[in-house]
Amino acid sequence: MLKALADECLRATFFEIGEYALWHPEITKQVVDAGMTVGTHTWSHKDLARNPYAKDPEKAEREIEMGNSSLHSAAAGGKVAPFFRFPYLQQSPQPVSYLAERNIAIFSTDIDSRDFAMHKPEQVIDSVMSQLEKRGKGIVLLHDFHRNTAEALPELLRQLKLAGYKVVHLVPKEQLATVPKYDEMFEHRENLSSSAQPASAPAPANVAAVHQRRGIYMYVPAQGHGPHTQKKGLNTGPH
Length: 239
Fold this sequence. Notes:
The chain is of the alpha/beta class. 38% of the residues lie in helices and 11% in strands.
């Protein structure tokens, strides 16, 4: 997918799960070095709108911040944006307030490709283009761990270009600032009674595939608009 974007001189936004970035930081670094915007997607993809996270602000905060610290570590000095996407796009009031206090922008989506339910590249392309035709613009959600999505992307980008759309690179004004308490917790994660992967333990056999479960966002403005813009403190709707 990085090659398909690079071939068209385009950049997208990748929302990564902290636990998977821990297992394969070299993939996160590859995405960062390719000039993509990297945001966070919690530590272990827990639904923060459900208990115990919905009723326990500390647990929700830890799930968010451990993800931040992990991505910051995996980026190895590269840029991580203060952009966040809720797992399953499910929000609850407390985490929303906390992210606002941290000046971290919440992203939702306008066009869900639903590529996880499709088996052929053509289906992914049709899904995105048909929804975009109705809406005229919007944030498109794709998942890079699906082979059909990776195979669809070159043709999807070609069709977007032919239809007069531009893919806009979302760039933050400032970079993500981590919290020292959680940086230390991440460094000593083997002492946590959670699902955290100990640094000395081997990753699961399927971790290479699992790690790539990132949500990819492409912002497509209305036809004819310029190809470049900058979003500062963007907070998209309640999805």
